[in-house]
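Bumping my old thread because nobody answered last time. Still need a sequence for this structure:
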């Protein structure tokens, strides 16, 4: 009978769990505890690295969602989009963990960051890169189906697939805005809202970036729909 305790995969580590997940490599990516600049630094690194991994996973699923969308496979697009968005909920809530680091302690860690800044986050940059491409694929599908985005919303039961995709696009925008909002609060709370970041960017700029929406047309559509029903009530609320 096979000995199930014996590893059968190649790799480092005494078990297949460690070999498959490469836990030796993964767990050596943080500063050894006896070399931390401050005991809170491990939390700082674990939260950042976890966020990068989750954003990497989310970008991958969004890329797959984009491919499905351009093939007209709306069900799979929405399914993969939903998964990617679910992954993005975690970097957002992980920011809360960092709010437990207090300013004087953070400055000990910050002294070792050089010009390191979230502006260079590969995970976040890949999300910013994929979003407009999803927007383009959506527009192409509308064109191919001879529809306007208003048609999709007005007859959402008929165009269930495209409507589902559009709603997942909206979820994505909300998540990115939510991330930016909570991140801004974190920065204001720890280093203050009137200073420069490690890359020289004023924290105020983070506030401006919060206005950015990847799928503005879908938000503006709401105004147009409301306008049809009550023309006097609309103001620009897309920000
Ligand atoms: C103590 C915690 C943190 C502080 C004080 C902080 C502060 C800042 C500041 C000041 C900036 C502006 C750029 C610059 O550095 O000059 C920035 C940008 C950014 N940071 Fe953080 N950050 C923190 C944690 C995080 C975490 C955990 C993430 C997750 C990956 C993150 C992701 C980002 C991103 C994506 C940007 C660019 C923002 C955008 O494009 O809107 N930050 N951060």
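Sorry it took so long. Here it is:
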């Amino acid at each position: 009978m096979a000995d199930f305790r014996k590893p059968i995969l190649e790799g480092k580590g005494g078990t297949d769990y460690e070999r498959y997940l490469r836990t030796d490599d993964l767990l050596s990516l943080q500063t050894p505890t006896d070399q931390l600049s401050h005991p809170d630094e491990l939390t700082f690194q674990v939260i950042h690295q976890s966020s990068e991994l989750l954003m990497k996973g989310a970008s991958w699923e969004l890329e797959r969602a984009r491919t499905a969308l351009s093939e007209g496979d709306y069900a799979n697009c929405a399914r993969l989009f939903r998964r990617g968005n679910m992954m993005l909920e975690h970097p957002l809530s992980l920011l809360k963990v960092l709010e437990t680091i207090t300013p004087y302690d953070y400055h000990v860690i910050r002294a070792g960051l050089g010009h390191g800044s979230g502006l260079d986050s590969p995970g976040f940059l890949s999300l910013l890169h994929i979003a407009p491409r999803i927007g383009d694929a959506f527009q192409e599908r509308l064109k191919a189906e001879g529809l306007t985005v208003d048609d999709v919303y007005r007859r959402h039961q008929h165009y269930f697939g495209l409507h589902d995709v559009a709603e997942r696009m909206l979820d994505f925008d909300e998540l990115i805005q939510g991330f930016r909002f909570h991140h801004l609060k974190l920065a204001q709370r720890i280093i203050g809202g009137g200073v420069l970041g490690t890359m020289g960017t004023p924290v105020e700029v983070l506030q401006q970036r919060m206005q950015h929406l990847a799928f503005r047309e879908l938000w503006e559509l709401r105004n147009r729909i409301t306008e049809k029903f009550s023309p006097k009530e609309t103001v620009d609320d897309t920000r």
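The mean pLDDT is 95. Let me know if any region looks off to you.
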